[in-house]
Amino acid sequence: MIKKMFLAVLALVILTTSCSDDDDAIQAIVPNAGTLTGGPFTFIVDGTPDFVSGISTDPNAVGTNRSFVVTDDLGNILGLPPTNEALQGVDFDGAGVGTCLIWYLRYENGIQGLEVGENANDLVGSYDLSNSITVERLGQPNAGVLSGGPFNFIVDGIADNVSGVSTDPNAVGTNRTFVITDINLNILGVPGDLTALEGVDFDGAGRGVCLIWYLRYEDDTNIATVTNAADLTGTFSLSNSIRVERGPNADVLTGGPFTFTVDGTPDMVSGIGFENPDNRVGTNATWVITDDLGNILGTPPTLEAVEGVDFDGAGVGVCLIWYLRYENDTNIATVTNANDLTGTFHLSNSIMVTRN
């Protein structure tokens, strides 16, 4: 009898001890947040809400409690969305420019420091943080003010390069390049940096006007494929332009031709213009009226003066109207025939005035 009682007591002790060990094993959970997948994310701070999506937690994560943790790049806790749904409701645009990190946390009761305003590096207790997902919040691109120039070169076969151009130190944008266009914004080149820009020979572009711009942009911008700056799309900012005149250049005249009858009634031209008025280059300018042999009949200084000329008074024949852009070494003040012009100049096409 005593032996049976002893065995029963022994069995009870063993059973009690076994249960106690199992309880300790259940309580001794070691948190493991596993691997957080998704992202990274890049947003532009522009007043439009920006939300993350497609983030997944590790199905093998372990821990009694769970939460997402949003910090800055120093670990300061900015938010504690408890669920993935709550995380996807966070508007990262409202956080302004900077970097956020998203973490997944599994932890046991008693953790300390898990509060907004605290630092995730200072957490105390039984917990595990996953890897982080980066959320970059970039400022709206701003190319700022481009300074330097303007430049005025003579097309003479000698290389002409710009210098002294500087970009705005406060410019914003992940990517950057210079853009060279003509006056109609057709893209002629995209030198990637200032050294490349200063290596461009503008003399080789011939007569006309170039514009130099500075571009700051994000990856969604189509600068690699677009041919005209007016067609740029995506997230970008163009600076002001710097004008590079390659001259002289009289541009192309439009209007006419004109046919008058010599009958004693004054005959005036009108409607004369330029194909690309901003393309005109040259220190000096004048209009030149010649006969069909190039003999200079007059040099009205302005278009208004040209429109004041009475071609009826010239009698029967043909006149030609030209536009001249020139430098100080040109002999327009003394020459009598346009074919004998010398120096640095450019004559436009001519408009014919026939006097019957």
| Major beta-sheet overview | 6 strands, mixed
Instruction: Give the distance, in angstroms, between the N- and C-terminal Cα atoms.
Output: 151 Å
pLDDT under 50 segments (min length 5)?
A: 1-25
- SSE pattern: HEEEHEEEEEEHEEEEEEEEHEEE
Structure notes:
With 356 residues, the protein is mainly β. Helices cover 11% and strands 30% of the residues. The protein has four helices and 20 strands. The protein is rod-shaped and about 115 Å long.
Main features:
356 residues; mainly beta; six-stranded mixed β-sheet; 4 helices; 20 strands; 11% helix; disordered N terminus
Q: In a nutshell, what does this entry contain?
A:
By secondary structure, the chain is mainly β. The protein contains 4 helices and 20 strands.
Secondary structure layout:
Layout (H helix, E strand, L loop, with lengths): L1 H26 L13 E5 L19 E8 L4 E3 L4 H4 L10 E10 L19 E3 L3 E7 L11 E4 L20 E8 L4 E3 L4 H5 L9 E10 L18 E3 L3 E6 L5 E2 L3 E3 L12 E2 L9 E8 L4 E3 L4 H4 L10 E10 L18 E3 L3 E5 L1
Parallel strand pairs: 1-6, 7-12, 14-20
Antiparallel strand pairs: 2-3, 2-4, 4-5, 4-6, 8-9, 8-10, 10-11, 10-12, 13-15, 16-17, 16-18, 18-19, 18-20
